[in-house]
Specification:
The structure holds 2 protein chains of 2 kinds. By secondary structure, chain A is mostly beta strands. Chain A has no helices and 9 strands. In chain A, a hairpin with a 6-residue loop joins strand 3 and strand 4. In chain B, strand 5 and strand 6 form a beta hairpin. Classes of the chains: A mainly beta, B mainly beta.
């Protein structure tokens, strides 16, 4: 099982770019890096997923170096509404119920 | 609108009184799953279903039952709830059975067992 490690909490300010790094030293060849966002009392929401290099969507960018042992979620120009818990997961491709280990995530607090 | 719907959102019950939390998805997803979330423990999988009539245990199945008689519904049953099952519960679904497909979560059911 690929376990991920990320900071417990981070603070930033409105308008700044926020980078959250996740470590996944034991990632397997067919694992995908996936990030979710969770607001209090709501279910996690998919943000972005990648396998290697860089992926960008309307919400965030995901940078994965060649060795894939870490990844960085980048949130451009954050606002107060980006205050949430962010989870990094390694999801295995294929037809299975690869057990997901949801850690405590990174609690991101955006200040005015 | 594509969504996973759980009911009820809040439930307070007493020890031993059977209850069912319903989950329904309108995306024709094969895979559905139940999680519980407790402070400091993250999300833990209770049961999952790869398709109709196919269910299996997750990490913490004790004290829970599920059924999958039709694709859209995946109810969670607590036959004899106990206080240690007080938690925030989430149902999720995804297209296909490939684990790299994004999970879609419901808004949660906060259960309190006294």
């Amino acid at each position: 099982l690929a376990k991920t490690t990320q900071p417990i909490s981070m603070d930033s300010y409105e308008g700044q770019e926020v980078n959250i790094t996740c470590s996944h030293n034991n990632i397997a060849t067919n694992d995908y890096i996936t990030w979710y966002q969770q607001f209090p009392s709501q279910g996690p929401r998919f943000i972005i997923q990648g396998y290697k290099t860089k992926v960008t969507n309307e919400v965030a960018s995901l940078f994965i170096p060649a060795d894939r042992k870490s990844s960085t979620l980048s949130l451009p120009r954050v606002s107060l509404s980006d205050t949430a818990v962010y989870y990094c997961l390694a999801l295995r491709g294929g037809d299975s119920n690869y057990q997901l280990i949801w850690g405590a995530g990174t609690k991101l607090i955006i200040k005015p | 609108e594509a969504q996973v719907t759980q009911n009820p959102r809040y439930l307070i019950t007493v020890t031993g009184k059977k209850l069912t939390v319903t989950c329904s998805q309108n995306m024709n997803h094969e895979y559905m799953s139940w999680y519980r979330q407790d402070p400091g423990l993250g999300l833990r999988q209770i049961y999952y279903s790869m398709n109709v009539e196919v269910t299996d245990k997750g990490d913490v199945p004790e004290g829970y039952k599920v059924s999958r008689k039709e694709k859209r519904n995946f109810p969670l049953i607590l036959e004899s709830p106990s206080p240690n099952q007080t938690s925030l519960y989430f149902c999720a679904s995804r297209a296909g059975t490939g684990t790299n497909s994004p999970l879609h979560f419901g808004n949660g059911t906060r259960l309190t067992v006294t």
